Amino acid sequence: MSLVQVKDLSVRYGARTVLSRVSLHVDPGEIVTIVGPNGSGKTSLLRAIIGAVRPIKGSVTRGRDVTIGYVPQKLHIDETLPITVARFLKLPGGVTGAQIDDALTQAGVPDLSKAQLSQLSGGQFQRVLLARALIGKPDLLLLDEATQGLDQRGSASFYQQIEKVRQDTGCAVLMISHELHVVMSASDRVVCLNGHVCCEGTPAVVASAPEYRALFGTGTGGALALYRHEHDHGHDHGDHSHDHNHTEAAE
Amino acid sequence: MLDDFMVRAALAGIGVALAAAPLGCFVVWRRMAYFGDATAHAAILGVALSLAFSMSIFIGTMAVALLMALTVSLLSGRGYAMDTLLGVLAHSALAFGLVAVSFLSGVRIDLMAYLFGDILAVSRGDLAVIWGGAGLVVALISWRWSALLTATLNEDLAHASGIDPRREQLVLTVALAITVAVAIKVVGVLLIAAMLIIPAAAARPLSRTPEGMAIAAGLIGMLSAIVGLRAAFVFDTPAGPTIVCIAAITFLGSGVIKSFRASG
After folding, report:
1. How far apart are CA A185 and CA A227, in angstroms?
2. Is B204 on the interface with A (CB under 8 A)?
3. B210 contact A CB<8A
4. Quick check: B156 and A52 CB within 8 A?
5. Which of A150, A102, A81 is nearest to B151 (CA)?
6. Within 13 Å, how many C-alpha atoms sit on residue B174's CB side?
7. Is the CB of residue B160 less than 8 Å away from at least one CB of chain A?
8. A118, A190, A223, B84 - which has most CB atoms within 10 Å?
9. A72 touches B at CB < 8 Å
10. In 10 A of CB B109, how many CB atoms?
11. Is A92 touching B (CB cutoff 8 A)?
C-alpha cells in the first residue's frame, strides 16, 4: 500500500500548463527524489500533494492515517516577527516540551530551542524546519529543495541527517533537489520531471536514460561517473516515446 | 463614573488600543501597513453614505471598510504592484468620500471629527460599540491565533497543516474592518493606521515571542491613550493626535533601548 498515490495529475496556472498527466507513488520507507530543470513543475507537484494547489485533472490519494511532514523550499522570517524555535515548533498545538527536544535532537540541532528564529544560520534554519516536519511523527517527509542556500558540506550533512531520520523512524521521503551528485547516491528511486515524468527508476537507470541526458546534458558527467563504473546498463525503457525538444542544461 | 467625559474618553482609548494591538502585530508581520491605511481611508466614504441613508455610522463605515479590504484582496496579483493598487484605492476612496460628504446639504457635519476623531465626545452608546467591537476583534484573533501565525510564517506550511491561508486572510480583513469602524470616533480615519502600527512596532524590540509582542503592544497602546488624553487636557491639544504622538515617543524610546542592548 503506497503512502501517497498521484494519478494522472495535471496542474495549470492560468493558461500555462505546468504538469500534465503525472503519476507517482511513494511506498513506506523509501527515499524518492524528483529532479528536473527550473520550471519543470517540481514544486507544483509537491504543493499539489500537500493540497496547496488544486489540480485540473487527476488525483492525489493519501493512504489511510498517513501523516505528512513538509519542509518548504525557503522560509523567510520577517525581522519584525519575534519567535523562538520552541514557540515555532509548538505552533501546531498539543506539542510537549519533550517532543520538541526529541524533534530537535533528531534534526541534529538539540540546543536551539531558545534561539530566535530570525537569528539562525541557513543550515540551522533548515534543520529547525526539518524538526518541525518531524514533530508530527510523519509517515512521509516532503522536502522542497531543502538545502537551497547551503554550501556543499552543509547540504551533504543535511542529506545524511535525512538518511539517519529514515533509519531511525522508518518514514518515507519524497524530495526535490538540484544537487544531482548528492541526491543520486542517497535515493532509492529518482523521478525525472519536466512538465511530465520523463523517466524514473533507480538512480543508475535514470542517470543513463536518454531523456535525463537530454535535460541535463553531459555537463553532469561527474555525477554520472559515479554510476557508470558500477552499472553496465543494458536496460530498456519500455515505450517511452514522448518527444524531448528541450535541451537546456542543468545549472 | 461614566458621567465624566474624561473617563469615557479614556475607556474608549483603552478599548481601541486593545483591539488594535494583536491586529496591529499581524499588520506589521505581514507588511500590511498600507493595507490598513487604505481600509481606514475608505471609511470616510462610509461616513458619507451612513449620513446620506441615515444609517448607524458604525455599520456604514464597517461595510465600506470591509468592501475596500475585499476589493484589495481580490485585485492583488492582477498586474499592478500592491503599493500602487493601494495608493490608488486608498486616496480615491478618501477623495470620493470627501466629495460625497459635500453633497449632503441637509446635514451639517463636522468633517474634522471624522478625520481626526472626537474622543472627548464619546457617548455611553459609543462606548458600548467600541468595547463590543474590540471584544469581537480580540476574540476572533485569539480563536484563530495559531492558524493566523502559521499562515503568516508560510502559506505552504499552513496548507501542509490543513490550514487555508485565504480563510485566515479573511479573518484579518474582517477584524481590520471592525477595528476601523470602532476607532473612527477615537482617532479618526487618518490616524487609525498609526494606532495599529506604532504600538506594535514599539513592542517589537521588547519581545521574544509573538504573544509577548501582542501583549506589549496592548500595554503600550493603553498607556499612550491614557497619557495622551492627560497631555491633551493639560496642553489643550487635539486628543486623537496627542495619543498618537505619545505612542510615537514610546516607539522612539523602545528603539533607543534596542540600540543600547545591541551595543552593550
Report:
1. 9
2. yes
3. yes
4. yes
5. A81
6. 14
7. yes
8. A190
9. yes
10. 12
11. yes
Average pLDDT over residues B54-71: 88
Cα four-point dihedral sign A213, A217, A218, A220: negative
pTM of the model: 0.83
Contact list in B for residue A87 (CB cut-off 8 A) is 209-210
* Sequence-separated (6 or more) residues with CB below 8 Å from residue A142: A46, A49, A50, A68, A69, A70, A71, A133, A174, A175, B160
Residue-wise pLDDT for A73-122, tens only, equals: 778 888 889 999 999 999 877 788 899 998 899 888 888 989 999 888 88
Distance of CA A70 to the CA centre of its chain: 9
Classify A181 as helix, strand or coil: helix
Angle value at C-alpha B70, between B68 and B75, nearest 5 degrees: 95
Q: From the candidates A49, A83, A88, which should be mutated to test the interface with B, based on the most B CB atoms within 10 A?
A: A83
A50 vs chain B: nearest CA distance in angstroms? 5
Q: Are B59 and B42 in contact (CB under 8 A)?
A: no
List, in order, residues 6 or more apart from A157 with CB less than 8 Å away. Answer: A108, A123
Q: How many CB contacts within 8 angstroms connect chain A with chain B?
A: 61
- pLDDT band of residue B264 (cuts 50, 70, 90) is low
Residues B152, A91: C-beta atoms closer than 8 Å: no
Taking the Cβ of residue A241 and every Cβ of chain B, the question of whether any pair is shorter than 8 Å is answered with: no
Instruction: Give chain A positions within 8 Å (CB) of B207.
Output: 82
The amino acid at A203: P
